[in-house]
Write a structure and sequence with these properties.
This protein is of the alpha/beta class and 339 residues long. Helices cover 42% and strands 18% of the residues. It folds into two domains: 136 residues, Nucleotidyltransferase, domain 5 (2-Layer Sandwich), CATH 3.30.420.40; 166 residues, ATPase, nucleotide binding domain (Nucleotidyltransferase, domain 5). The chain has nine helices and ten strands. A five-stranded mixed sheet has the order 3-2-1-4-5, with helices on both faces. The radius of gyration is 20 Å and the shape is globular.
Length: 339
Protein backbone atom coordinates (compact mmCIF):
# COMPACT_ATOMS: atom_id res chain seq x y z
CA UNK A 1 0.00 0.00 0.00
CA UNK A 2 1.48 3.35 -1.09
CA UNK A 3 0.41 6.48 0.76
CA UNK A 4 1.48 9.93 -0.43
CA UNK A 5 1.05 13.23 1.42
CA UNK A 6 1.09 16.25 -0.91
CA UNK A 7 1.57 20.00 -0.42
CA UNK A 8 0.53 22.81 -2.79
CA UNK A 9 1.53 26.40 -2.02
CA UNK A 10 2.34 28.01 -5.36
CA UNK A 11 0.14 31.09 -4.99
CA UNK A 12 -2.46 32.04 -2.38
CA UNK A 13 -4.05 28.68 -1.51
CA UNK A 14 -2.49 26.42 1.12
CA UNK A 15 -3.50 22.86 0.33
CA UNK A 16 -2.67 19.35 1.53
CA UNK A 17 -3.95 16.01 0.26
CA UNK A 18 -3.48 12.30 0.85
CA UNK A 19 -3.61 9.67 -1.88
CA UNK A 20 -3.37 5.93 -1.30
CA UNK A 21 -2.77 3.40 -4.08
CA UNK A 22 -4.03 5.97 -6.59
CA UNK A 23 -7.24 6.85 -4.73
CA UNK A 24 -7.73 10.26 -3.14
CA UNK A 25 -8.47 10.07 0.59
CA UNK A 26 -8.51 13.76 1.47
CA UNK A 27 -7.99 17.20 -0.05
CA UNK A 28 -7.97 20.27 2.21
CA UNK A 29 -7.45 23.87 1.13
CA UNK A 30 -7.20 27.10 3.12
CA UNK A 31 -7.97 30.23 1.09
CA UNK A 32 -6.57 33.69 1.77
CA UNK A 33 -9.26 36.36 1.89
CA UNK A 34 -6.69 39.02 2.79
CA UNK A 35 -5.99 39.72 -0.89
CA UNK A 36 -9.52 40.81 -1.81
CA UNK A 37 -9.10 44.40 -0.63
CA UNK A 38 -5.96 44.76 -2.78
CA UNK A 39 -7.57 43.51 -5.98
CA UNK A 40 -4.97 40.77 -6.44
CA UNK A 41 -2.48 38.52 -4.68
CA UNK A 42 0.13 40.33 -2.57
CA UNK A 43 3.16 37.97 -2.50
CA UNK A 44 4.42 38.95 0.98
CA UNK A 45 0.98 38.53 2.54
CA UNK A 46 0.55 35.21 0.72
CA UNK A 47 3.77 33.72 2.10
CA UNK A 48 2.90 34.83 5.65
CA UNK A 49 -0.55 33.26 5.38
CA UNK A 50 1.00 30.00 4.13
CA UNK A 51 3.19 29.87 7.22
CA UNK A 52 0.13 30.19 9.42
CA UNK A 53 -1.98 27.72 7.45
CA UNK A 54 0.31 24.87 6.49
CA UNK A 55 0.47 22.94 9.77
CA UNK A 56 -3.31 22.94 10.46
CA UNK A 57 -4.06 22.14 6.81
CA UNK A 58 -1.69 19.15 6.81
CA UNK A 59 -3.05 17.98 10.16
CA UNK A 60 -6.62 18.14 8.83
CA UNK A 61 -5.72 16.30 5.61
CA UNK A 62 -4.13 13.43 7.56
CA UNK A 63 -7.06 13.33 9.97
CA UNK A 64 -9.66 13.33 7.18
CA UNK A 65 -7.79 10.56 5.38
CA UNK A 66 -8.10 8.42 8.52
CA UNK A 67 -4.45 7.46 8.45
CA UNK A 68 -1.54 7.76 10.85
CA UNK A 69 1.42 10.02 10.16
CA UNK A 70 3.53 6.84 10.21
CA UNK A 71 1.55 5.44 7.25
CA UNK A 72 2.97 8.07 4.88
CA UNK A 73 5.51 6.63 2.41
CA UNK A 74 6.56 9.89 0.71
CA UNK A 75 5.74 13.58 0.57
CA UNK A 76 5.13 15.37 -2.72
CA UNK A 77 5.27 19.14 -3.08
CA UNK A 78 4.97 21.88 -5.66
CA UNK A 79 8.47 23.05 -6.57
CA UNK A 80 7.24 25.64 -9.08
CA UNK A 81 6.29 27.63 -11.00
CA UNK A 82 4.66 30.17 -8.72
CA UNK A 83 5.36 32.92 -6.21
CA UNK A 84 8.78 32.25 -4.71
CA UNK A 85 7.84 33.18 -1.14
CA UNK A 86 4.77 30.96 -1.25
CA UNK A 87 6.67 28.05 -2.77
CA UNK A 88 9.40 28.32 -0.14
CA UNK A 89 6.90 27.62 2.64
CA UNK A 90 5.67 24.40 1.03
CA UNK A 91 9.11 23.22 -0.05
CA UNK A 92 10.63 23.89 3.39
CA UNK A 93 7.79 22.08 5.15
CA UNK A 94 8.09 19.08 2.83
CA UNK A 95 11.86 18.85 3.27
CA UNK A 96 11.55 19.04 7.05
CA UNK A 97 8.76 16.45 7.11
CA UNK A 98 10.69 14.04 4.90
CA UNK A 99 13.83 14.45 6.98
CA UNK A 100 12.00 13.88 10.25
CA UNK A 101 10.16 10.78 8.99
CA UNK A 102 13.02 9.50 6.79
CA UNK A 103 10.80 9.21 3.72
CA UNK A 104 11.38 10.26 0.08
CA UNK A 105 10.73 13.72 -1.33
CA UNK A 106 8.89 14.09 -4.65
CA UNK A 107 9.05 17.40 -6.49
CA UNK A 108 6.15 18.30 -8.78
CA UNK A 109 5.80 20.86 -11.55
CA UNK A 110 2.58 22.76 -10.87
CA UNK A 111 1.53 22.61 -14.52
CA UNK A 112 2.07 18.86 -14.69
CA UNK A 113 -0.13 18.65 -11.62
CA UNK A 114 -3.01 20.35 -13.44
CA UNK A 115 -2.82 17.73 -16.19
CA UNK A 116 -2.50 14.87 -13.68
CA UNK A 117 -5.74 16.05 -12.04
CA UNK A 118 -7.49 14.34 -14.95
CA UNK A 119 -6.39 11.00 -13.44
CA UNK A 120 -7.72 11.64 -9.94
CA UNK A 121 -9.87 8.82 -8.66
CA UNK A 122 -12.03 8.47 -5.57
CA UNK A 123 -13.38 5.20 -4.23
CA UNK A 124 -16.92 4.29 -5.31
CA UNK A 125 -17.03 7.16 -7.83
CA UNK A 126 -16.95 6.19 -11.54
CA UNK A 127 -14.03 7.69 -13.44
CA UNK A 128 -12.51 7.31 -16.91
CA UNK A 129 -8.85 8.24 -17.44
CA UNK A 130 -7.77 9.90 -20.69
CA UNK A 131 -6.02 7.52 -23.08
CA UNK A 132 -2.51 8.38 -24.27
CA UNK A 133 -1.79 10.28 -26.41
CA UNK A 134 -4.23 13.12 -25.76
CA UNK A 135 -4.37 16.88 -26.20
CA UNK A 136 -4.78 19.10 -23.14
CA UNK A 137 -5.91 22.70 -23.24
CA UNK A 138 -4.22 24.07 -20.12
CA UNK A 139 -5.75 27.41 -19.16
CA UNK A 140 -5.02 29.31 -15.96
CA UNK A 141 -4.21 32.75 -14.63
CA UNK A 142 -0.57 32.40 -15.61
CA UNK A 143 -0.54 29.91 -18.47
CA UNK A 144 -2.38 29.11 -21.67
CA UNK A 145 -1.04 26.14 -23.60
CA UNK A 146 -2.01 23.22 -25.79
CA UNK A 147 -0.01 20.19 -24.69
CA UNK A 148 0.37 16.84 -26.42
CA UNK A 149 0.50 14.34 -23.55
CA UNK A 150 2.22 11.16 -24.68
CA UNK A 151 2.61 9.58 -21.23
CA UNK A 152 2.77 10.62 -17.58
CA UNK A 153 6.36 11.68 -18.12
CA UNK A 154 6.46 12.73 -21.77
CA UNK A 155 4.71 15.91 -22.89
CA UNK A 156 5.12 18.31 -25.78
CA UNK A 157 3.90 21.91 -25.85
CA UNK A 158 2.48 22.53 -29.32
CA UNK A 159 0.86 25.88 -28.59
CA UNK A 160 1.44 28.57 -25.98
CA UNK A 161 0.71 32.22 -25.27
CA UNK A 162 3.28 34.71 -26.52
CA UNK A 163 2.30 37.24 -23.87
CA UNK A 164 -0.63 37.07 -21.43
CA UNK A 165 -2.71 34.09 -20.33
CA UNK A 166 -6.47 33.65 -20.74
CA UNK A 167 -7.01 33.75 -16.99
CA UNK A 168 -5.19 37.06 -16.78
CA UNK A 169 -7.45 38.45 -19.51
CA UNK A 170 -10.49 37.50 -17.44
CA UNK A 171 -9.04 38.99 -14.24
CA UNK A 172 -7.84 42.22 -15.85
CA UNK A 173 -11.21 42.69 -17.57
CA UNK A 174 -12.93 42.26 -14.21
CA UNK A 175 -10.65 44.90 -12.73
CA UNK A 176 -11.42 47.29 -15.59
CA UNK A 177 -15.12 46.75 -14.92
CA UNK A 178 -14.66 47.47 -11.22
CA UNK A 179 -15.50 43.93 -10.11
CA UNK A 180 -13.96 42.62 -6.87
CA UNK A 181 -11.10 40.08 -6.82
CA UNK A 182 -11.17 37.34 -7.96
CA UNK A 183 -13.10 38.67 -10.92
CA UNK A 184 -12.97 35.74 -13.34
CA UNK A 185 -15.82 33.79 -11.68
CA UNK A 186 -17.95 36.95 -11.59
CA UNK A 187 -17.54 37.48 -15.33
CA UNK A 188 -18.68 33.88 -15.80
CA UNK A 189 -21.68 34.48 -13.53
CA UNK A 190 -22.79 37.71 -15.24
CA UNK A 191 -22.11 36.35 -18.73
CA UNK A 192 -24.92 33.83 -18.28
CA UNK A 193 -27.40 36.73 -18.25
CA UNK A 194 -25.90 38.68 -21.16
CA UNK A 195 -25.82 38.71 -24.96
CA UNK A 196 -22.45 37.30 -26.13
CA UNK A 197 -22.81 38.92 -29.56
CA UNK A 198 -23.59 42.44 -28.36
CA UNK A 199 -20.00 43.75 -28.51
CA UNK A 200 -17.26 42.63 -30.91
CA UNK A 201 -13.56 42.51 -30.06
CA UNK A 202 -10.64 41.92 -32.43
CA UNK A 203 -8.85 38.57 -32.54
CA UNK A 204 -5.03 38.30 -32.49
CA UNK A 205 -3.24 36.68 -35.45
CA UNK A 206 -0.34 34.71 -33.94
CA UNK A 207 -0.27 31.40 -35.79
CA UNK A 208 -2.50 28.37 -35.73
CA UNK A 209 -1.89 27.06 -32.19
CA UNK A 210 -0.32 29.96 -30.28
CA UNK A 211 -2.23 32.49 -28.19
CA UNK A 212 -2.07 36.20 -27.43
CA UNK A 213 -4.34 38.07 -25.03
CA UNK A 214 -2.40 41.29 -24.48
CA UNK A 215 -4.05 43.06 -27.41
CA UNK A 216 -7.49 41.90 -26.34
CA UNK A 217 -6.95 43.30 -22.84
CA UNK A 218 -5.92 46.65 -24.35
CA UNK A 219 -8.91 46.66 -26.71
CA UNK A 220 -11.29 46.07 -23.81
CA UNK A 221 -9.63 48.82 -21.76
CA UNK A 222 -9.98 51.39 -24.56
CA UNK A 223 -13.52 50.25 -25.35
CA UNK A 224 -14.66 50.75 -21.74
CA UNK A 225 -12.79 54.07 -21.52
CA UNK A 226 -14.35 55.47 -24.70
CA UNK A 227 -17.88 54.27 -23.97
CA UNK A 228 -17.74 55.50 -20.37
CA UNK A 229 -16.60 58.93 -21.56
CA UNK A 230 -19.87 59.23 -23.48
CA UNK A 231 -21.99 57.57 -20.83
CA UNK A 232 -20.64 57.39 -17.24
CA UNK A 233 -23.16 54.62 -16.49
CA UNK A 234 -22.17 52.49 -19.49
CA UNK A 235 -20.60 49.64 -17.48
CA UNK A 236 -23.43 49.50 -14.97
CA UNK A 237 -26.10 49.54 -17.67
CA UNK A 238 -24.37 46.97 -19.91
CA UNK A 239 -22.43 44.80 -17.44
CA UNK A 240 -24.03 41.49 -18.39
CA UNK A 241 -23.58 42.02 -22.13
CA UNK A 242 -19.96 43.17 -21.68
CA UNK A 243 -19.13 40.08 -19.62
CA UNK A 244 -20.89 37.78 -22.07
CA UNK A 245 -19.10 39.34 -25.06
CA UNK A 246 -15.67 39.21 -23.43
CA UNK A 247 -16.16 35.62 -22.31
CA UNK A 248 -17.42 34.57 -25.73
CA UNK A 249 -14.36 36.13 -27.39
CA UNK A 250 -11.84 34.46 -25.06
CA UNK A 251 -13.53 31.07 -25.27
CA UNK A 252 -13.81 31.33 -29.04
CA UNK A 253 -10.07 32.01 -29.33
CA UNK A 254 -9.27 29.01 -27.12
CA UNK A 255 -11.54 26.69 -29.10
CA UNK A 256 -10.25 27.87 -32.48
CA UNK A 257 -6.65 27.08 -31.49
CA UNK A 258 -7.63 23.73 -30.00
CA UNK A 259 -9.43 22.74 -33.21
CA UNK A 260 -6.31 23.67 -35.17
CA UNK A 261 -4.26 21.42 -32.87
CA UNK A 262 -6.68 18.54 -33.47
CA UNK A 263 -6.28 18.99 -37.23
CA UNK A 264 -2.50 19.23 -36.88
CA UNK A 265 -2.12 16.07 -34.76
CA UNK A 266 -5.14 14.01 -35.74
CA UNK A 267 -5.79 13.35 -32.04
CA UNK A 268 -9.41 13.50 -30.83
CA UNK A 269 -8.81 12.49 -27.21
CA UNK A 270 -9.22 15.94 -25.64
CA UNK A 271 -8.84 17.25 -22.10
CA UNK A 272 -8.97 20.63 -20.39
CA UNK A 273 -7.17 21.58 -17.18
CA UNK A 274 -6.26 24.61 -15.06
CA UNK A 275 -8.27 27.21 -13.18
CA UNK A 276 -10.05 28.61 -16.24
CA UNK A 277 -11.42 25.12 -16.98
CA UNK A 278 -13.97 25.91 -14.27
CA UNK A 279 -15.50 28.53 -16.58
CA UNK A 280 -18.98 27.38 -17.59
CA UNK A 281 -18.79 29.05 -21.00
CA UNK A 282 -15.64 27.12 -21.86
CA UNK A 283 -17.05 23.85 -20.51
CA UNK A 284 -20.28 24.20 -22.48
CA UNK A 285 -18.46 25.10 -25.68
CA UNK A 286 -16.08 22.16 -25.29
CA UNK A 287 -18.99 19.77 -24.83
CA UNK A 288 -20.68 21.15 -27.93
CA UNK A 289 -17.50 20.87 -30.01
CA UNK A 290 -16.87 17.35 -28.71
CA UNK A 291 -20.35 16.25 -29.75
CA UNK A 292 -20.05 17.88 -33.17
CA UNK A 293 -16.52 16.65 -33.94
CA UNK A 294 -16.68 13.24 -32.24
CA UNK A 295 -14.05 14.08 -29.63
CA UNK A 296 -13.62 12.07 -26.44
CA UNK A 297 -13.68 14.85 -23.84
CA UNK A 298 -12.26 14.85 -20.31
CA UNK A 299 -13.10 17.71 -17.91
CA UNK A 300 -11.94 17.65 -14.26
CA UNK A 301 -14.39 18.15 -11.42
CA UNK A 302 -14.70 21.78 -10.29
CA UNK A 303 -12.81 21.16 -7.05
CA UNK A 304 -9.77 19.95 -9.01
CA UNK A 305 -9.60 22.82 -11.52
CA UNK A 306 -8.12 25.51 -9.28
CA UNK A 307 -4.88 25.08 -7.30
CA UNK A 308 -5.16 22.06 -5.00
CA UNK A 309 -2.91 19.43 -3.45
CA UNK A 310 -4.88 16.51 -4.87
CA UNK A 311 -3.33 17.13 -8.29
CA UNK A 312 0.12 17.24 -6.68
CA UNK A 313 -0.67 14.01 -4.83
CA UNK A 314 -1.64 12.05 -7.95
CA UNK A 315 1.46 13.31 -9.77
CA UNK A 316 3.54 12.31 -6.76
CA UNK A 317 1.98 8.84 -6.76
CA UNK A 318 3.01 8.11 -10.35
CA UNK A 319 6.46 9.58 -9.78
CA UNK A 320 6.79 7.34 -6.69
CA UNK A 321 6.02 4.29 -8.84
CA UNK A 322 8.72 5.51 -11.22
CA UNK A 323 11.15 5.99 -8.28
CA UNK A 324 11.56 9.64 -9.27
CA UNK A 325 12.69 11.22 -5.99
CA UNK A 326 14.31 14.53 -5.07
CA UNK A 327 17.17 15.14 -2.64
CA UNK A 328 17.27 17.45 0.36
CA UNK A 329 19.14 19.97 -1.78
CA UNK A 330 16.03 20.67 -3.87
CA UNK A 331 14.88 24.30 -3.90
CA UNK A 332 11.79 26.25 -4.95
CA UNK A 333 11.77 27.67 -8.46
CA UNK A 334 9.48 30.54 -9.41
CA UNK A 335 9.95 29.64 -13.07
CA UNK A 336 10.22 26.15 -14.42
CA UNK A 337 10.18 24.54 -17.83
CA UNK A 338 6.67 24.21 -19.23
CA UNK A 339 6.84 20.46 -19.83
Amino acid sequence: MITILAIESSCDDTSAAVIQDGFLLSNVTANQDVHKKYGGVVPELASRAHQANIVPVVHTAIHNAKISINDIDAIAFTRGPGLLGSLLVGVSFAKGFALAKNIPLIEVNHLQGHIAALFLKEKNIPHTDPEFPFLTLLVSGGHTQIILVKSFFEKQVIGTTIDDAAGEAFDKTAKILGLPYPGGPLIDKYAKQGNPERFKFSRPKVGKTNFSFSGLKTAILYFIRDESAQNPNFVKENLYDICASVQFTIVDILIEKLKNAVIQTGITEIAVAGGVSANSGLRNRLRAEAAENNWTLHIPDFEFTTDNAAMIAVTGYYKFLNKDFAGQGVSAEARMKDN
